[in-house]
Amino acid sequence: MRPAKPSTTTCTASWLAAMAFAAAMTAGGGIVAAQSAPDSENGRYSMTPIPEGVLRLDTRTGTVTTCTKNGAGWACYAVPDERAALDAEIGRLQAEVEKLKGQLAAGPTVSGKIDEALPKTDPLKKAEPKVAEGDRKIEIPLPSDQDMDRVMSFLEKAWRRLIDMANRVQKDVSGRI
Q: pTM to 2 decimals?
């Protein structure tokens, strides 16, 4: 006796069940792979949308690139690394400090005494009002001729501007009436 041949309905149902199971495993496996992707696979880059396109972070190296879509496709450009510029500047300054320390150590030694006397007052500092000893009155220094010329020049310019402004207002008002 021959074994019974399965019906076509049973074969089709078994085949559909196997396909559904395979599809569920594939979809579920993709979700699991996306959640726990190791660095060696899809989890190397982290993408963040920005108005111009996408900001891409390489999680291995730490480099950041901006990716934008143009007529020919997507193009990614490295974002300038501020840290590299700062490290370079720190290195340059450290080398300069070492050079200056060497120059200072090799230079002549300075003793505590100098030949010339230091000025007692600052020559650029304005004179303070003085108090007369006997009368206890305050003496105020008068402005120099140069100071007076500057004040007069300022006042003349301000007066001319005021007259010009008044003339413009008068013309505007008379033109509208």
A: 0.28
